[in-house]
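This part of the workshop introduces the protein records we will be handling. A record pairs a protein's sequence with a compact description of its fold. Comparing a sequence with its C-alpha cells is the quickest way to learn the format. To make this concrete, we reproduce a full record directly below:
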Amino acid sequence: MCGSGTFLIEAAQIALGIAPGINRSFAFEKLKNFEKRTWRELRESSIAQQKPPRRLEIFGSDLYGRALKDARENLVRTGLEACVQLKQANVLETPAPAPEGVLVTNPPYGVRSGQLDELTEFYPKLGDVLKQRFAAWRAYLFTADLRLPKLIGLTASRRVPLYNGALECRLYEFKMVKGSNRPVRGE
C-alpha cells in the first residue's frame, strides 16, 4: 500500500543522508536578517555529506498499477528510482521481503477509497498477515479512521496523534513477535 511513494522517498532520503527540502527554497530566505552566506555553507555541507543513490533494502508495493506508476514517477523526480524496489502486489498475499524490518503504510480508511464494509473485512485480514508473515518486524499504520485499527486484532505499542492537513490521524506502532505476546498462565 505504498500509494504515491512518499514514505519510500523519505526512507531513501534518510538512508542516504539527504536533508529534507534540500532542493527547495524556504520563505525564511526572504527575511531581512537572513544570512545568505551561512545558509549557503550549511546547504553545501549537507550536500557534501549525502551518499550517492544506490539500491537499498527499501521495498514498496501496491495493489493498484496507477499507485505504482505515481510512486515510480515521484522516485524518478527525486532521483531515487534506483534506491527502491517496487512491485504490484496484494498485501494480503505478499511475503515479507526480509526476515525483519520496518513496515510503514497508510492503509485505506474510507476518506478517498474503500467502503467501510470492505475495510471492516480487510483490517482483520491485515492483522493476520502481519502476525503470520511479519514476525520480528515493526509495523506502523497511519490512519484518519480511529475505529478501523481496533479491528486489526493487535495491540498497539504506541499511538501518536498526527494531522494530514485538516484530518486528525494516528500513527499506530505494532511490534510483531513470533508466537504470542500474551503471558503464560501462572506467571
